[in-house]
Design goal:
2 copies of one chain form a homodimer. With 236 residues, chain A is of the alpha+beta class. The first copy, chain A, has 6 helices and 15 strands. Chain A has a single domain, classed as Hypothetical protein, similar to alpha- acetolactate decarboxylase, domain 2 (60s Ribosomal Protein L30, Chain: A), CATH 3.30.1330. Helices cover 16% and strands 43% of the residues of chain A. In chain A, the strands form 3 sheets. The first copy, chain A, has a 7-stranded mixed sheet with strand order 6-5-4-3-8-1-15, with no helix packed on it. In chain A, strands 9, 10, 11, 12, 13 and 14 form a 6-stranded antiparallel sheet that branches. In chain A, strands 2-7 form a two-stranded antiparallel sheet. Chain A is globular, with a radius of gyration of 16 Å. The A-B interface holds A 11, 13-14, 106-111, 164-170, 207-216, 218, 220-223, 225-227 and B 11, 13-14, 106-111, 164-170, 207-216, 218, 220-223, 225-227. Strand 15 (208-212) of chain A pairs antiparallel with strand 15 (208-212) of chain B, so a sheet runs across the interface. Chains A, B: InterPro entries: Acetolactate_a_deCO2ase (IPR005128). Chains A, B: Its EC number is 4.1.1.5. Chains A, B: Keywords: Acetoin biosynthesis, Decarboxylase, Lyase.
Chain lengths: 236, 236
């Protein structure tokens, strides 16, 4: 796959319906990209793909390295990231990053964006999840047992995507970011953050989107796959 | 691209918002598939891609050959079709074909299907459209000036796709078929049909979906791109 094209395995609507007990090998995901986000079997935690390495943030916020040969992945979004644009800024929160990206890519209103932010964060609030209590438990219920923590004066990297409105259901419309600390000890889904010094933002616009659906997967086949995920799940 | 993978240029939600005054060259579409459906600049008529040849059904139901080197296409869905399954049946209408496909592919409830039906049709009712009266006129308004005709005892080919529910907005959820007569003189979007002799059905399941969005296209960038097309537009 060429640089800056989206590769996605399965759909967010499948996670909403609790389809997470099977998937594809992580090495298959990595064959399509070196940068991205996702989840793990039974939605156990948050995935960060950074420079081709994959980290699993467990339910308690701790991080382990995921073995590409052995890890089975029910959902992920990745790209072979090559920044089209880099800049240094101070930002307040996801709203600040949202405005910055919109300004930087005025012709990408209906395109995908890939984003990476490196630097020292004054604060960053992260969410992670313990995973399903039973097969087919949906993402909304999984997220009721979420853990949040706020890290202060921490160095690390935000990895994520912006998806256009019409891709909702397949993925999450809008911005969706995960974070991992520089020492690779803590991480999670980004709820909010603040910076007081410049951080480095790298991003690119993407117009090609490649979706691979689970095959020979009874759970996926039987799922209702609603189109509209709960927006509040990802917005806050 | 491998056999039986979906390639789609632009989105149905873009057509709903009237984004149809620019596009990609037809030869670029044909590089990704030899079988499919779509529309033309300013939504002028219905596209049938059959065995790598492209036909344009004009607003009056007549058919012309579309030159891959010169024709600009705002929206199309194609695949490199290789039937996974063929059968001969008598069917009543789109409902009959729908039931047949569901029976033939029990594990494809949330996958894409590609379909081709060849044979003698007792009746077939077709719709076509004249196209936009002005730039940005949406598909719903374009379809108010539709032409329908019913052909009787006519030989020809149905070409089309089934898309899963979660792909609505990107494409049309459900079945979507176009038709062209064997003599390539008439055609259109299939509203209904009936057979009294066996026709030949060829189909395949598809789990890979490749979307390419218009780039450097102000109309596309400025469009609102609603997720939900009017279902009745395509169901009847």
């Amino acid at each position: 796959m060429a640089f800056n094209e989206v590769f996605q395995y399965s759909t967010v609507s499948a996670l909403m319906d609790g389809v997470a007990s099977d998937g594809t090998l992580l090495k298959h995901i990595l064959a399509h990209g070196d940068h991205g986000i996702g989840t793990f079997l039974n939605m156990e935690g948050e995935m960060i793909v950074l420079d081709g390495h994959v980290f699993q943030v467990k339910g308690d916020g701790s991080v382990i390295y995921a073995d590409p040969e052995e890890t089975v992945v029910p959902f992920a979004t990745v790209t072979r990231f090559r920044p089209a644009l880099t800049t240094r800024r101070t930002m307040t929160g996801k709203w600040g990053l949202k405005e910055l990206l919109t300004d930087l890519f005025p012709k990408a209103k209906n395109h995908f964006l890939v984003v990476r932010v490196d630097g020292l964060f004054k604060t960053i609030t992260l969410r992670t999840v313990y995973g399903q209590c039973r097969p087919r438990e949906g993402l909304v219920d999984v997220c009721t047992r979420r853990t949040t923590e706020t890290l202060k004066q921490v160095k690390g990297t935000i990895v994520g995507f912006r998806c256009p409105e019409f891709a909702n259901g397949l993925n999450i419309a809008g911005d969706h970011f995960h974070f991992i600390t520089e020492d690779r000890q803590r991480g999670g889904h980004v709820l909010s953050f603040d910076t007081e010094h410049d951080v480095e933002i790298a991003a690119a616009e993407m117009v090609k989107y490649h979706l691979e659906l689970p095959a020979d997967d009874d759970e996926f086949n039987e799922a209702g796959l609603k189109q509209q995920p709960e927006p509040s799940l990802f917005a806050k």
